[in-house]
Amino acid sequence: MNKYKYIALILVTTFVMGVSFPVGKVGMAYAAPFFLMGIRFVLAGGILAAIVWKKPRPVGRMWGNAALIGLIQSAGVMGCAYYSMHWISSGESSIITCTNPLLVIILGTFLTGAKYRGRQWFGVAFGFLGVVITFGLQMNFQVGTLIGFAGAIFFAASTLLIKRWGAEFDMNVLAAYQMLAGGIALLLLSAVTEHPYFTFTAASVTVVLWLVIMGSIVQFVLWFYLLRSGDPAKTSAFLFLVPVFGLLSSWLLLGEKVAWYVSLGGAFICVGIFLVNWEGKAHSDGRLVRV
């Protein structure tokens, strides 16, 4: 993939991810969190499934693989992220959820035998430091924080599974059916753990439309495409941009305060992304130097 196209798609995807946190929190004023997420993914999955109906559908064990990815990605990640906002801000939730890149390298090393250079480990650690700085150099460990970290672990696991199984699927088909599986699971979870409700207003319908179209269909189609097209650790490193977009959009949409250290943390995040993705420099004869 052309690197400029890759960067453009990454920026669009991480921006949509970041904005979806405060938009989702707005939606929680009109619906229970699991119920809201269930509606989001069932509608998004159903619409995308209709769009890709003529493309090859999963067969055999592929259905189980798609369902497992949906349970982990759509239900696990988003369920934890939005449920955590009962206790913490949408900006904090986006920061915690997107510690995923560090976990991808850790899980990839121990579970899949992937090999990463010391520079990449340092880059991810640098990015994680940027997240901590963005968080104000303090992390208040409470129920919401722990739930958010559970979502980050789910995110890392789903990233590795998509990279492992994604080649078997048309990625748009996978995006559709994993969202349907995750949405159904969230609706069942809502029925068991909360009192489902949805208040119809212009604002609530607008929130659902954003979450379905931009925050689900566009986001997942682009994200799965990027994961299959590149190294999952390198692609996931760009998720450190999500908290920056999440904090800024939370400030604009919800009035959540953005302190001076957000800019400093953002600079650390950018350096971390560069270190993880830097391939090295070429000799005059075109040979690449791996650093």
Task: Write structural notes for this entry.
Its main location: membrane. InterPro entries: AA-Vitamin_Transporters (IPR050638), EamA_dom (IPR000620), EmrE-like (IPR037185). By secondary structure, the protein is mainly alpha-helical. Helices cover 74% and strands 1% of the residues. The protein is built from 12 helices and 2 strands; from the N terminus they run ααααααααααααββ. A two-stranded antiparallel ribbon has the order 1-2. Strand 1 and strand 2 form a beta hairpin. Helix 1 packs antiparallel against helix 9 and helix 5 crosses helix 7. The longest helix is centred in the last third of the chain and has 28 residues. The protein is globular, with a radius of gyration of 19 Å. The C terminus is likely disordered.
* Continuous helix count: 12
Rounded to an integer, what's the Rg over CA atoms? Answer: 19 Å
Can you give the mean pLDDT? 82
Which of globular, elongated, flat, extended, rod-shaped describes the shape?
globular
Task: Give a short summary of the structure.
74% of the residues lie in helices and 1% in strands. The protein is mainly α.
Question: What keyword list fits this structure?
Answer:
single chain; 291 residues; mainly alpha; two-stranded antiparallel sheet; 12 helices; 2 strands; 1% strand; disordered C terminus; AA-Vitamin_Transporters; transmembrane helix; membrane
